[in-house]
User: Fold TetR/AcrR family transcriptional regulator from Sinimarinibacterium thermocellulolyticum.
Amino acid sequence: MAYRRSALMQERLADNRERILAAARRRIAAQGYRGMQIAAVAAEAGMSTGMIYRYFRSKAELFVEALSAAIGQELKLLNAIADGPGSARQRLYAAVECFTRRALAGPGLAYAFIAEPAEAEVDAARIEVRQRLGDVIKRILRQGIDAGEFPPQDVDASAACIVGAYTEALIGPLAPRAERVKDRDRLTRAICDFCVRAVSAPADGRGRP
Amino acid sequence: MAYRRSALMQERLADNRERILAAARRRIAAQGYRGMQIAAVAAEAGMSTGMIYRYFRSKAELFVEALSAAIGQELKLLNAIADGPGSARQRLYAAVECFTRRALAGPGLAYAFIAEPAEAEVDAARIEVRQRLGDVIKRILRQGIDAGEFPPQDVDASAACIVGAYTEALIGPLAPRAERVKDRDRLTRAICDFCVRAVSAPADGRGRP
Amino acid sequence: MAYRRSALMQERLADNRERILAAARRRIAAQGYRGMQIAAVAAEAGMSTGMIYRYFRSKAELFVEALSAAIGQELKLLNAIADGPGSARQRLYAAVECFTRRALAGPGLAYAFIAEPAEAEVDAARIEVRQRLGDVIKRILRQGIDAGEFPPQDVDASAACIVGAYTEALIGPLAPRAERVKDRDRLTRAICDFCVRAVSAPADGRGRP
Amino acid sequence: MAYRRSALMQERLADNRERILAAARRRIAAQGYRGMQIAAVAAEAGMSTGMIYRYFRSKAELFVEALSAAIGQELKLLNAIADGPGSARQRLYAAVECFTRRALAGPGLAYAFIAEPAEAEVDAARIEVRQRLGDVIKRILRQGIDAGEFPPQDVDASAACIVGAYTEALIGPLAPRAERVKDRDRLTRAICDFCVRAVSAPADGRGRP
DNA sequence: CATGAATGAGAATTCATTCAT
DNA sequence: TATGAATGAATTCTCATTCAT
Assistant:
């Protein structure tokens, strides 16, 4: 063990790390992982590419840390809400609202959590597919509302939520590994129930602040 | 054009197209768009790279067609359900169930509709982030169930649905463009209401077949 | 020696050959050698790519024959003029006029004799270089005309001719191999004299029909 | 930016650019734009292909710069001559001489300004076509000289100049757009007059230094 | 320590040519 | 004999990562 790092150096090191992470965050928000070229991050951070590798072992590691750093703040807030006062319903409402509000205000970084932009043509195809899935849902919702089966609601938002709900539940990391037929059935039923309940229950505003 | 194409050749041509699409589908299921290298598809289909370009103008076009072909069948089924008999609730249930069931049975292709895989490390980070978001939700749900506020339910599935719902509603193509503060507020409220309703209503099984 | 080809077959063969050459000519006129893809020629000629290779050993050979065929007619006319009646001056005038007039009327095939289109950027650069060379010449010509040293003339055409004259004389296939300094000097002097004479002599219309 | 670039590094950078341009120049002189493959240039310059792209955005840009660099010096000299002292005739003579002399001394790069080499066979055909055009002209010239109509002159050079003059005037970028019949007639006449004058006037050496 | 020049492994795409049918 | 499907070599360009200075 030779010298201790002086406080100054420590600080500088920490500083650089932060600057790199911030630069990466900006690039990710703008272009996703693919747009986060090391050279671009370095330029944005005002340093050399070599410097990046002094603080991060690889591009992937930098991305992971940038992602974690960005989401860390959100998680802190969400956890505070979860552990805070109020009924569960109120806290659920507050948690979703908190994330949603911040994401809508912020600089699109949320995108990086979910999907990776590809060529325009490919993105366009994905968008279209999701829109067509959503269109079917919207049609059903409108009919149900007209028939008085569902309470009035924002069908665009509901349809988006439904498509998001079942795709995430199916393929997302939260999806319970459903390898046996029985498990699959249970998962399917849970998802369907979730969606039906969400659109059926009266919008009584329960939970709203 | 002197000779007519023999039936055999016609068949082979159609065959090739199908073989390419099938090969692409396999690659996409395994690795997403990025893993769908032309050379890999060609190898998987047992032909030369040049052949791919006889049937598809570009890599992106091949992806789009593979995507469309795969989703086309689903959409047909969903539309039939939407336009079919039964209450809206029943049809919504049936639609979600149909997609879900088939996706769970199928070969992970659905993944490609949603997210673009990157390096393993990056994917892992995305997964973790979503899991941690889900964990918060699960904690709230469990507390609510214990307190009798929420009916008993599959908290894993519900949490996944919630995370999926708000991410899709926020960033997906279905998301209403929310540029004014007022619009954002309305969207946020719609999402929150959706989620709260979904977990609050009694699982009365309405809509189940 | 097996069978003789029937007259019919001979004709058909000749027919195909002509059709291919004509198709190639059209493609060359449109896009130069690079645009003369075998597949495009075949399509234009209404036959298969394989057929092309029954009549021409390679793409290059087809180009060469198409070029020769196209220029053959011109050469016939030019030779007739050269061997015809009239003073040398009249015949030179007639020869140049003949080629020029036909080229101006025709479908740009002449281009293929000289230069091969490349990427737009590259072509643009070449054009600019030649224009700037021409600009210098034009400036001198205008000054000379104003000073009464040169007779009035179309300076655009004269400049083009001069640039064409010396570049061709230098690098074209007609350029005498000038490897010794003495030869180079003689060539240089001949070119310069040519250009100066061309712009200095009064446009007395000698030779005009 | 912590460190300043050392003089040494600066030099190396400039060096690389020059080395690439020189390597490109050599390849172009040998094979034209088509022979200027990035890999070949990199090999010739003794570096990796990636390096090329650090200095030039694309293959086309490299070509354009190599072209411009080579021609820039020539244009400077020509402009100096055009703006210098002496009669217009003397300056025209000097300008043509300057370019000619230098091109004859240099490494065939001039070729790239004019024509885009293709396969050897194709080039050979082009050469032959031009030679045959030149042969007709030469025949006329010789007859005219024998008949005393034209003064003695280097018929090879004159023929080359004539072929160059009318091809450039016809198809080159300097060619006035001749879309109406009237314009074409005027252009044709200007070219013919130019050529006839050039070979008819006595070689009185006017303009020679 | 900091730099950024240098590397080189890929990846997409084109097209002349061949040959089974 | 005529077809056109099939091949695959060649070429441009990108970017994560390294390492001499």
Remarks:
- Residues 118-200 of chain C form one domain.
- Chains C and A do not touch (no CB pair under 8 Å).
